[in-house]
Design goal:
Blueprint (H helix, E strand, L loop, with lengths): L3 H22 L5 H8 L3 H26 L6 H19 L4 H28 L6 H28 L7 H19 L11 H6 L7 H33 L5 H21 L5 H25 L2 H29 L5 H30 L1 H26 L8
Helix pairs in contact: 1-4, 1-5, 1-6, 1-7, 3-5, 3-9, 3-13, 4-5, 4-7, 5-6, 5-13, 6-10, 6-12, 9-10, 9-11, 9-12, 9-13, 9-14, 10-12, 11-12, 11-14, 13-14
Length: 398
């Protein structure tokens, strides 16, 4: 039976995830401000975004395995929140490009420390240990935080309310609340499985864990490559290619992607994980084609529709891929597997947007977007074909 104290602990774990992701996306509407203030090129803006992902990768690689060995995951969650606070305040009060990058690196490290660990904690604090439901909860909280970040910054820009500073002060305050809540909440996780025979029994994918993981990772790469494009360069695309000159309005378009993605994840809970993953990647490919056409004909409305479609596809693909990984992960190594899943995602977060920034300086922003479109369409064919071959066999009912 669920204890109220456990529900309190789960709430603060969810808040921790949300705050970390607020910190990850709050900067998105502000990149154009820094670009104009400091005369930055597209690649430099992309690098500011991507250095966050590298900070995340470092933390995931270092802390993912350590978490499974600690008796209380709160230690690393609280430590990671402290890093989130430091990153937010350094970024929010940065006076030059190197300081800005340090803030983003720390923001990424804080998020990386939280991602796999907090996901595993949500499952262990759930007496039902429902991997699918907890995957939906974690990804919904994840994307909810992503959506609120640019909305807060866009509102600060619109009202001229200390826009380069206020969002990050708010993030630091929320992270402090999460730390206090976690430190005082009762923490009674379910016992972890340590018998390797029991962990092996958790594999219910006929083609094996690793091939199934590869398919899920491929879907995640497609989803996060598009997500990082909107988060890192979306405002730049809207501002310079679609002639929407309001930074606040451009930021709202980015926030709309994240918000629709979150709603899509909740709706996708009713779908089988495999089906959600395939439908999501297919919709992403169609929507990114619509966005490319919108840029070609300079149609902000069509771009918004393509953005919404991309967000729906992102949400379905993400929750489907996360559901596959949570289903196949050995219980005694869950944080390690989930961390590896997110390592793949953050590589997809960093490398494509860096490539886009480089191509944007060399070929122009539209040429760079066309390259992204080709990558997404081809990748979707490959991933969906592999999913039909590897994940098509029926699984025994639980």
């Amino acid at each position: 039976m669920a204890l109220p104290a456990n529900r309190q602990a789960r709430f603060f774990v969810a808040l921790a995830i949300s705050v970390a992701l607020l910190n990850s996306t709050a900067a998105s509407p502000l990149y154009t401000s820094y670009r104009m203030m400091w005369s930055l090129g597209a690649f430099t803006v992309a690098f500011i975004f991507a250095i966050y992902a590298f900070g995340t990768l470092i933390a995931l690689l270092v802390l993912g395995r350590l978490s499974d060995r600690l008796p209380d995951r709160r230690l690393l969650i609280i430590l990671s929140l402290g890093v989130v606070i430091a990153g937010a305040l350094i970024f929010g009060f940065a006076g030059n490009l190197p300081t800005l990058m340090i803030g983003r690196l720390l923001a990424g490290a804080g998020t990386g420390g939280l991602t796999g660990i907090a996901n595993a904690a949500l499952i262990e604090l759930d007496p039902k240990a429902d991997a699918r439901a907890n995957a939906v909860l974690a990804t919904a909280v994840f994307t909810g935080g992503c959506a609120l970040g640019p909305m807060i910054s866009s509102a600060a820009l619109y009202f001229d309310a200390w826009p380069l500073h206020l969002p990050f002060v708010l993030i630091a305050a929320l992270a402090g609340i999460a730390i206090l809540g976690l430190a005082t909440a009762s923490w009674q996780p379910a016992p972890r499985i340590t018998d390797p025979r029991e962990a092996t029994a958790a594999d219910d994918v006929p083609a094996g864990r690793y091939t199934a993981f590869a398919v899920a990772a491929g879907a995640l790469i497609i989803a996060w490559a598009v997500g990082s494009t909107f988060a890192g360069l979306g405002v730049t695309f809207v501002h310079e290619l679609l002639e929407v000159h309001s930074q606040a309005a451009s930021g709202v378009i980015v926030a709309a992607f994240q918000l629709v993605a979150g709603i899509s994840q909740l709706a996708s809970q009713r779908l089988d994980s495999n089906r959600a993953m395939v439908l999501g990647t297919t919709l992403i490919a169609l929507a990114i084609l619509a966005c490319a056409l919108a840029i070609w004909i300079t149609s902000p409305l069509l771009f918004v529709l393509g953005t919404v479609g991309s967000g729906i596809g992102y949400g379905a693909a993400f929750v489907g891929a996360a559901g596959v990984v949570n289903r196949i992960a050995p219980p005694d190594r869950r944080a390690t597997w989930v961390s590896t899943f997110y390592i793949t995602g953050y590589l997809a977060n960093a490398l494509p947007v860096l490539a886009l920034g480089f191509l944007g300086d060399q070929l122009g922003l539209f040429g760079a977007f066309l390259c992204l479109t080709v990558f997404i369409v081809v990748g979707t064919f490959v991933v969906n074909g592999a999913a039909k071959l590897i994940l098509a066999a029926p699984r025994p009912a639980r």
